[in-house]
Amino acid sequence: MTLTSFGPANRIKRSAETHPLTWRLRDDGEAVWLDEYQAKNGYAAARKAFADMAQDDIVQTVKDSGLKGRGGAGFPTGVKWGLMPKDESINIRYLLCNADEMEPNTWKDRMLMEQLPHLLIEGMLISARALKTYRGYIFLRGEYTTAAKHLNRAVEEAKAAGLLGKNILGSGFDFELFVHTGAGRYICGEETALINSLEGRRANPRSKPPFPAAVGVWGKPTCVNNVETLCNVPAIIADGVDWYKSLAREGSEDMGTKLMGFSGKVKNPGLWELPFGVTGRELFEDYAGGMRDGFKLKAWQPGGAGTGFLLPEHLDAQMYAGGIAKVGTRMGTGLAMAVDDSVNMVSLLRNMEQFFARESCGFCTPCRDGLPWSVKLLMAIENGQGQPGDIETLLGLVGFLGPGKTFCAHAPGAVEPLGSAIKYFRHEFEAGIAPTSAAVPPLARPIVVGA
């Protein structure tokens, strides 16, 4: 895995002032363990939070910083923390770290957990102090075996150093932390499905309200945050709100830095910590190095498989939620994928929709039946056996499975790339429609859902 600092030639070194997430990384890619982490000012923010800050002040600081969730939804972290009950009589609360990173083209949390496990632990420790949670779980994607090994070792190191467990730093505050590996379901990235899975139940999303802050894991108040989100907390506490806000580029409404990347047939695929507000063109050309020789950029996704496709002319959009929204899609996880000119969009979308159909929990009808239906139609078009009306049916499914039409956000994310692909590359879909003398009404086609 590649992680480069501000520039592919490392012309500018990572520093604590500019790279709060990655400045401690080792050049050899090995994990930073406790002694080295503390030598690099690790756990200083936790000591400050425990010694000098009231719990509510920690929450307010995070809220003032403008930190938003880094898992894809972008909900303000401080606002989420503020939803936890203030009633001191509720003495059982939980903090969950969503480390179920199963979004295709996304691997940022893996790097943090494998190489900087103590950064996540420190972020959770400060967050637990702020939220008055006595127990935390890192819900980890089961395939991340190296991350699991490194996190478990780091937890044991922190326990031995008195940074986890009973009476942490002499404060009287107790916090236990456990690493829980999941069974491998994409839907566990949805926070209530994650909670159900942690409880040993089927990983179906729950109805909201009640929200996890009121009724979460085992019926108790629960806060769920993403890995990268929690890893931002120590720097905010250590260096303050004004500094954190100053990291973002002018024009960005999102604060701080973001782990961004590019995959596909680019010259320098990798992952970089960059300020919010850099343009897609900077990310693509200056860091990813542009396309490999012999390939041209046809389209790109800005943040994982659940975001809409963009064209090369959209590369000048700024990489923050509002900047990407201006060109018609979402920032998502911030790890982009380049689609080269050798790729047929129908085949690409068929592959994507197969993944999303397989990963549906099957709880609600639009998602359970609509996604396999889209796969059937795409397979027919891919094989040149599509019928007149199939494209309109696909667009109808994009509407039927859109935001607000399903129980959770799985289906809307699944069909967003489909709708954008038809918008920009409709001619490729039309090429798969077989010649016929009579049009078949699109809803009259014999579709065997799930077959």
From TrEMBL:
Full protein name: NADH-quinone oxidoreductase subunit F
Sections of the chain in a coiled coil: none
Single GO MF annotation: oxidoreductase activity
Keywords: 4Fe-4S, Flavoprotein, FMN, Iron, Iron-sulfur, Metal-binding, NAD, Oxidoreductase, Quinone, Translocase
InterPro entries: NADH-UbQ_OxRdtase_51kDa_CS, NADH-UbQ_OxRdtase_suF, Nuo51_FMN-bd, Nuo51_FMN-bd_sf, Nuop51_4Fe4S-bd, Nuop51_4Fe4S-bd_sf
Lineage, opening ranks: Bacteria, Pseudomonadati, Pseudomonadota, Gammaproteobacteria, Pseudomonadales
Known partners and oligomeric status: Composed of 13 different subunits. Subunits NuoCD, E, F, and G constitute the peripheral sector of the complex.
Primary enzyme class: translocase
UniProt source species: Pseudomonas vancouverensis
Family named by the database record: Belongs to the complex I 51 kDa subunit family.
Keyword Iron-sulfur carried by entry: yes
Record Pfam families: Complex1_51K (PF01512), NADH_4Fe-4S (PF10589)
